[in-house]
Structures are given as C-alpha cells and as structure tokens.
Design goal:
about 260 residues, alpha/beta, binds iron/sulfur cluster
C-alpha cells in the first residue's frame, strides 16, 4: 500500500528484546507528535497496526538475533532500508540473553519452559551488526529518549548524530557529582561505560553497572585492578561484566580474564 506521502518513511522493528527501547520512542510524548508530522510512520507494530510496505528511509531495529528466522528477517529488513540504526543493548551487543553464549542454551530452555521441545532457538544471541551492515548504533538498556530523537533528527537532516563516545565519568564531572568510587569506595563501572544516561546512578550515590556498554577504547583491566583494591572478589569481577552487554568484546574479554 502506498500513502503517496513525500515524508521519509520510518520503520521500527523488533527482534529478541523486551520492547523497552521501543517504549522509549513512545515515551517521547510531546516530541512524538512533531516526529509523527516529520516522518511517515510506516511500520511500528508497538504503536500502530498499519503496515505500509517498504522500502523505508530509516529503520530502527531493537533486539538481537536468536533464531534462524531472525537471521532471514534482518536480511530482508536491511534490503528494505536505506538507513538502518540499531537501538539498545540487545541490538548492539546481544543483550542479557547473550548470557547463553557462555553456557548451554538447552540447559536454560529445559529450566524455563514446561515443553522445551517446542523451542526452536540458536545457541547464541548476537548483535544485528554480526549479520548485516549497520549505519549507526545507539547504546543503552534502554536507550535514552533524547539521544534517540537526536539520531532520528540527524538522519532526517542528513547529518551525523551528536552522541559523544566518552565515559560516564565525564558525565559525573559535567554534573558536578562527587565520585562514589573515590569518596565512598563504591564499585562503579563508570570509567569504562559509554555515556548517554547523564551519570544517572552516581547522581543518586550508586555505582554504575554498565548498562550503556563499553565506551570507546575502555581500559577495563585498569578498572578491574582498582575494583580488586576496593575488595571485589574474582568471582564478582567476572559477574560485574556479565550483564546487559556481556557479549560486547571489551566486557566479554574482561569477564573471561576473571573466569572462576
Ligand atoms: S562515580 Fe563512577 S562514573 Fe562517576 S566519576 Fe566516579 S567512577 Fe566515574
Ligand atoms: S548503570 Fe551506568 S550507564 Fe546505566 S543508567 Fe546507571 S550510570 Fe548510566
């Protein structure tokens, strides 16, 4: 079906995920009306049942690849999309479901499902970029809605999105936060974690647990040495990198270095 509209066509796709990043888009509220005026929301099942056939000017992709069907579907989405942006930890690194990559997925399905024989899944959860070329990756678990609007606006204006690659520590400095690690000895992954949240956890006196994934060129071994000095055990060090971005290489490698 064609709308006859000259507005750029936006599509939002879901793969293996919790829908939290798509909800961040719906959470834009006031800006969503302006966005809906600027683009033709052609495919977004979380928000509308209307399905306008591709091609699409901008596809936002949430979720990781966990089934053989996903592999086929993401290739088709890529074929149909001029620009493809992945949103959130699942899509950019494989998500919490990538913990299966370090274990036996059959052991998990037998515990979680009453009839595991009906479950057809891959042994791994992998990011979208492992399967098709990706034009831009937006991090976070979930993504930050202002950053999402910046990415969509930038692509509509044919410019590069302004999403800095620095660490959460830089945000602490910008906010004027007292460092929870230096002042209170609280374990914090801020030095190796990608900015985007505005140092949300340290602002409330909590350590960062790395939900935005690794920053550009993180020095995880140096942070691990500091965490050991603060009393963290090898096992805890292993686990601290094994959360939402466990499959992202810098966190994956650091977890492996401290494998029990
Ligand atoms: S509180 Fe954490 S994120 Fe903030 S400056 Fe200290 S180590 Fe960095
Ligand atoms: S865990 Fe870290 S990256 Fe995630 S919201 Fe808290 S401070 Fe931000």
């Amino acid at each position: 079906m064609s709308t006859g509209s000259v507005r750029p066509r936006l599509a939002v796709w879901k793969f293996s995920s919790c829908d939290g990043c798509q909800l961040s888009l719906l959470d834009c509220e006031d800006e969503l009306l302006a966005l809906a005026g600027a683009v033709d929301i052609a495919y977004f099942l979380e928000a509308t049942r209307a399905e306008v056939a591709g091609p699409y000017d901008l596809s936002l992709v949430e979720g990781s690849i966990t089934t053989a069907h996903d592999v086929e579907r993401i290739r088709e989405v890529r074929r149909q999309s001029k620009v493809l942006v992945t949103i959130g930890a699942c899509a950019t690194s494989g998500g919490i479901q990538a913990l299966r990559n370090f274990s036996d997925v059959k052991a998990f399905t037998s515990i979680v499902y009453a009839r595991p024989e009906y479950i057809s899944t891959l042994a791994t959860s992998t990011p979208i970029s492992a399967h098709v070329p990706v034009d831009f990756e937006l991090r976070g678990c979930p993504i930050q809605k202002r950053q999402l609007l910046e990415v969509v606006t930038a692509f509509l204006a044919h410019r590069k999105p302004v999403t800095p690659p620095h660490s959460v520590c830089m945000d602490c400095k910008i906010q004027g936060n007292v460092c929870v690690m230096v002042a209170h000895g609280t374990h914090c992954l801020g030095p190796v974690t990608h900015t985007g949240c505005g140092a949300l956890c340290p602002t409330y006196d909590r350590g960062c647990y790395g939900c935005f994934g690794p920053k550009e060129t993180p020095n995880a071994p140096a942070l691990s040495a500091q965490l050991v000095q603060l009393g963290m055990s090898e096992r805890s060090l292993h686990l601290v990198y094994r959360t939402f971005n466990a499959n992202d290489p810098p966190f994956r490698e650091e977890a492996e270095r401290h494998a029990p």
